[in-house]
Amino acid sequence: MSVAQSEPLTDADAPAAFIDLERYPLTAPDSAGYVRVIEDARGRLAQSALLALPGFLSAHGLRRLREDARALEPRAHRSVKQSNPYNVPVTDDMPDDHPARILSTTERHGVAYHDMGGTAMAALYRWAPLGRFVADVLGLRQVHLHEDPSNALVLQIYKPGDQLAWHFDRAHFSTILQLQKADEGGYFEAAPNIRSEGDENLEGVHAILSEKREPPFRGRSEPGTFVIIFGRNCLHRVTRVIGEHARISLILSYEEQPGMKLDAKTRKLFFGPDAPDDP
Ligand SMILES: [Fe+2]
Question: Which residues surround ligand 1, an ion (CB under 5 A)?
């Protein structure tokens, strides 16, 4: 782990205090309340591929993580790109109406894990009961921390004008903590399970991208909400942020296998030239 350790966290910064433990009893995994939360979460995730757990952070936790976000914001790396939802190059053999020919824009600001040493965010990400909770919701025996020095934990800041292009995720699942809503815009739009392993449903994807069909899901999570999505077959985007305030979220990467990381070239592409080289 190449994250710099600065001064130790105080008791008030213990990650347990960042969670609303009455509602989400992460420190009592054998309790009936915990089992109920897990069963409810699994049921909802199986139905929709999207799970939002509102009020997951305590008031103290939300305040503390937003303080981190404010302090880290000057280090954010701006990235702008045009892409199709598959993140593949367009080739001549693709028919004219192939959805890969429709590009949309990503413009956003990210702070990488290597810039988060000593923060409450980093402590929460590494806190074992949170990893266990994610594994339990997903029905996995355990999850591992992503081992990339930059990509393991990313603070995403969508400033006014920023947006995230329509895409499918490469990862099977993603876990996100929402920290701040935009004044207007900044909607998460999604078409869960629009494709499957055996059926790309190019027509359905094209209809959403060309705005012939509305995406079935459109929402804005309240700050403090923990979100899990199955993104591989869920077409999704973040609409343009409008108003004065940024939309801020924290992406926590957990993996089913240990040892996962980006190669150095991709890391620098995502996080800028100051991102660490491979050791
Ligand atoms: Fe995504």
Answer: 169, 231
